[in-house]
What does this fold into?
Amino acid sequence: MRMNSEISWATELLRENTPDEPMTANLAPPAVTAPTRQVAEPQEALRPGQTPRAASRFSVAVQVGLTWTGGNARAFTLDLGAGGFSALLASQPPASGEIVTTLRLRHGDVVTALVGVAGVRRRSGSLRVSFVFQRLSDGDRKRLERYLGDQAGGILGARSGS
It folds into this structure.
């Protein structure tokens, strides 16, 4: 029963801290000054027909916890962006229903969000599961965007030799 209360608590927290307007308008990827093709393909704005999940993703390992009614999982992200992330899991989470995720960024920064399953692919005995952010508070969105901006800056700095 503890998982149900954690999901209810997280869901209520997100509802209290999430604006009523659609969040897709606020999910522009962080600005990047030069292309970083091997690791990411950041854009200033979404292309027609492109979803926020498909925009600006970085190959970065961030500890993630997932909780849903009847189960949970812990993993590391394979990639992370302003619209979602993917991770290797041993079993498939429910395709529908509420999934609460906690991303542990750095320096104690934590992002909590409701996510949905965007896709599942078999990968050498595991499942690569892609998740899309469904509810993300403004504060968590800003923390995530700041983290992604730092990732882009670190990649660009390493490539330029600075």
Confidence is low (pLDDT under 50) at residues 17-45. DSSP finds two helices and seven strands in the chain. Residues 47 and 129 are 24 Å apart (CA to CA). Helices lie at 2-16, 138-160.
